[in-house]
Each structure stands twice: as C-alpha cells, then as structure tokens.
Specification:
This protein has helices at residues 244-250, 315-321, 335-338; strands spanning 3-9, 15-17, 22-24, 35-42, 48-49, 64-70, 75-90, 96-104, 107-113, 123-129, 152-153, 163-164, 168-171, 174-177, 186-189, 193-196, 199-204, 215-217, 231-233, 238-242, 254-258, 268-270, 278-283, 289-292, 295-298, 331-332, 349-351, 359-362. The chain is mainly beta. Strand 7 (75-90) and strand 8 (96-104) form a beta hairpin. Helix content is 5%, strand content 38%. The strands form 9 sheets. Strands 1, 2, 3, 4, 6, 7, 8, 9 and 10 form a 9-stranded antiparallel beta sheet that branches. The protein has a 3-stranded antiparallel beta sheet with strand order 12-23-17, with no helix packed on it. A 3-stranded antiparallel beta sheet has the order 19-18-22, with no helix packed on it. The radius of gyration is 21 Å and the shape is globular.
Length: 365
C-alpha cells in the first residue's frame, strides 16, 4: 500500500487574473505559509492521481485517501482525494505548467503542479481537461466513447533535487562525502573541470520528517559496476545518462533523468530515510554535472524549484550566479519522456582518469 508525499500549494497561493487569463505567485510568496504536504495513500498498487469523472465530488478511486498538512505538520484535511481538473498554462519561455486542482468531498484543498511556479512571473492560460481513465469506443453504439487516459502519475509532480548524507563526490582532495564538502572546496565537473562550491545547504530528516524519502541505486543498476557503491539521492535529483536512444528520441547524446523516473529499473528503489541523515545542496557558478561513485549527477540548479527549497541560498547569491543558471546543463526529460528509457537502454559509465579527463567510455544500446 504505497504512500506518496508531495509538496503543493495552498488554495489561495496561486493568484488568478481573469482579465489577462494568467496566474502567478505573489512576489512575497512564503514557502512555509503558502505550501502544503499531501500524503496520499493508495489502497491498492495505484500510481495515478485519479479524478471524479465517473463519481462526481466523491472520486473514482475508493482506495485513494489523503492527509493534508501545513508545513508545520498540522493536519488540515483528510478523506478520499481526487483530481477535479487540470489547468494548463504556458510560461514566456514556452514551458508548460500543469496545475492540478485537488479536492476532498467537493472541497478544494490545494493544488499540485508538474513544475514549480516562480514568484512574480505570469503564466498564460492555455486549456483545461478532466481527469479520467482511458476507454475504448463501443462499436455497438452510434457515439464515440473513446477517451484517452488523462490521469497524472504521482512521479510527475515535482520535488527539489538534493544529495543524501554520505554521498561521495570527486573533489580536489579525492572522493569525499558531501557532508564534508564546504564553501570554497573544489569539486570535479564534467564540463568545466574543477569548480569552487559557492554555497552549501542542508536539512536533516529528523528536523523535517515531511521530506520525500530518498531513492537508492545499487551497484550495477546504471551499467556494469556503476555506481561503485550504493548511491542515494532525492527523488527529483537528476542523473545524466547516454546512449543511442537519447539521440534517437531527443536529439541529444546525453540527457538528465530524475532518479524517481527510474524506479521501474532493477536495483533502484525508494527507501526509508535515516533520521540522522540529511539532504545536501551544492551551488556552483553554473549548473554542473558532478561525479558520484562513477555516476554523473547534477548540482543545484537556480531554477523555479528554489521556492520549494528550505533552506535556500541567500538572495544575494542567487542574484550573483543566476546568469550561469539560465538553463540546465543537459536536456531534462519529463516523466513521460523518461518512459522510453528501459533498463539497459542507457548507461552512465565514465573514465575519470586525471590525464584524459572525464570521458564517456561505454554506452549500452
């Protein structure tokens, strides 16, 4: 009976301007007051947030219940939960934002998104759709009853990428746990060699039990001998992979994929966090590709997810390094795009020889 813990917005966090058909977060958005934690329990093996298309204001999935908390851990709502509808918006750069209206017993209890909104930015309305399972057309009737499955997988809602305590990274002093790395230390990157850490943040599981549980990647799950040791990352933390399928489907030799989008692979699973461990964030001048036990992983990206990051880099640092974070270091796949990455279709095997520098050594077709 899986439980999905997702951070979303309160019902009044998103401001609607009906004259311009736009939404936005206010410039004074408060990440504590304006966010909620949705703990959704699936009685079966469900992986989708179902709607109420067939059972209005009650929900189509009788085994889909939720406890909804504020960020201080106070229970606000409980009951059978469903997605009332999805509103689609477009950012100025073309990014598509899907806002899912979540209800319990006909009451709007909050919103979930596929990409966090950025305070002070306007997003223009595109269209809306109802949430339901797929259905085939009945050839015995004159009407077309065919419907596509419009439900959203829980994995498509976003979290913030972080390293878990003990994650080993290549530094100028040799492999070192992320816990020991501080501002001023030099860390090896794929694109720019040795780069200096500008800021490090961390948050302990004991102090924030609402944080999503880490993803554990066992040795060999990403290619022969890779990772070299057990690697644990936050669900949204992106891994850089390569293979002919990346070029074929996405026109890029290397792409980023979130750890949670590889949960169907052997040797990759979500595990209970150690309360004595923490999530760590490392900020560099640019969004970088780092090395951890032979696996290429991302550094902190100063993107829209900053509003969901606690603690976040000071505003003065975000302003100073924003120019190096206008886009991610590699193309980032969505949950739907990541489905084509079947086990063995991509690899992350790199040569870290000092003389040659990091190179892709092998790719699995």
């Amino acid at each position: 009976m899986p439980t999905y813990s997702i951070i979303g917005y309160t019902v009044d966090a998103i401001v609607h301007d009906y004259n311009t058909s736009t939404i936005s977060l206010p410039s004074d958005f408060d990440s504590n007051e304006d966010r909620l934690r949705f703990d959704i329990v699936e009685g079966g093996t469900g992986q989708y947030l179902d709607g109420d298309y067939y059972n209005g204001e009650v929900g189509d999935d009788n085994d889909q219940d939720a406890n909804i908390y504020d960020m201080d851990g106070n229970l606000l709502h409980t009951g059978q939960v469903y997605a009332e509808k999805v509103d689609v918006y477009v950012a100025a750069d073309g990014t598509t934002i899907e806002v899912t209206r979540v209800e319990i017993n006909g009451v709007h209890v909050g919103d979930l998104v596929n990409t966090p909104l950025e305070p002070g930015v306007d997003y223009t309305y595109s269209h809306s759709y109802n949430v339901h399972t797929g259905a085939a057309d009945d050839p015995n009737t004159s009407e077309n009853e065919a419907r596509a499955d419009t439900r959203t997988e829980y994995s498509e809602f976003t979290d913030v990428p972080c390293f878990v305590s003990g994650t080993m990274l290549d530094t100028a002093e040799g492999p070192m746990p992320v816990d020991w790395i501080g501002v001023g230390d030099r860390v090896r990157t794929l694109d720019r060699g040795w780069q200096v850490v500008r800021w490090r943040g961390h948050r302990a599981f004991r102090a924030a039990p609402d944080m999503p549980a880490p993803i554990e990647i066992t040795p060999g799950a990403l290619g022969p001998g890779v990772p070299q040791e057990v690697l644990r990352l936050s669900p949204q933390h992106r891994i850089m992979v390569s293979g002919p399928i990346c070029e074929l489907y996405f026109g890029a030799p290397e792409v980023f994929v979130a750890a949670k989008h590889l949960l169907h692979w052997p040797g990759i699973r979500q595990v209970k966090p150690d309360p004595d461990h923490a999530y760590y964030h490392l900020l560099f001048d640019h969004h970088e590709v780092l090395f951890s036990d032979g696996v290429t992983v991302e550094s902190l990206f100063l993107g829209a997810e900053m509003e969901a990051l606690s603690p976040a880099p000071p505003a003065i640092l975000q302003a100073a390094y924003r120019h190096g974070h206008t886009e991610t270091a590699r193309l980032s796949l969505t949950a739907r795009q990541a489905r084509v990455l079947l086990p063995g279709s991509v690899s992350a095997i790199f040569d870290l020889t000092d003389n040659a520098g990091p190179e892709v050594m092998a790719q699995v077709a």
